[in-house]
From TrEMBL:
This is HPF/RaiA family ribosome-associated protein. Residues 104-115 have a biased composition (Basic and acidic residues). Coiled coil: none annotated. It comes from the Bacteria. Residues 104-123 are annotated as: Disordered. Pfam families: Ribosomal_S30AE.
């Protein structure tokens, strides 16, 4: 699974933050590694909300999965770690739900697979 970390000028941490984020993603999404191809992490400061007493950091996670449209989630918190962890949990649940839909869809018998002659109807 490829992980890319992007930060703006308000986020401190550099290489250690990038390494930590990659490890967390690989650990928390380990059982989805056959399905998830890439995860992009966007960490930014939210100064407008900070002035009003709201969250100060925002994390957006976007994932690409095999044969599926991209999935993006976000979370805001006072600290980068909290915003990241909240977004990662949202991403895990969302990807698992999407994977369940794909499995359910492919696990059911298709109406197109039913032989019209066997059912006594004609097209």
């Amino acid at each position: 699974m490829q992980v890319q970390v992007h930060t703006d000028a308000t986020i401190q941490g550099g290489d250690s933050l990038e390494t930590w984020a990659k490890e967390e993603i690989n650990t928390k999404l380990a059982r989805l590694k056959e399905y998830v191809v890439r995860v992009e992490v966007f960490l930014t400061g939210v100064d407008a909300l900070k002035a009003t007493g709201g969250p100060g950091k925002k994390c957006v996670l976007e994932t690409r999965a095999n044969g599926r449209p991209p999935i993006a989630v976000n979370a805001e918190a006072e600290k980068v770690k909290d915003a990241f962890n909240a977004a990662l949990e949202k991403l895990r649940r969302t990807v698992e739900a999407d994977l369940d839909k794909v499995r359910e869809k492919h696990g059911r018998e298709s109406v197109r697979g039913v032989d019209d002659a066997a059912t006594g109807t004609e097209g």
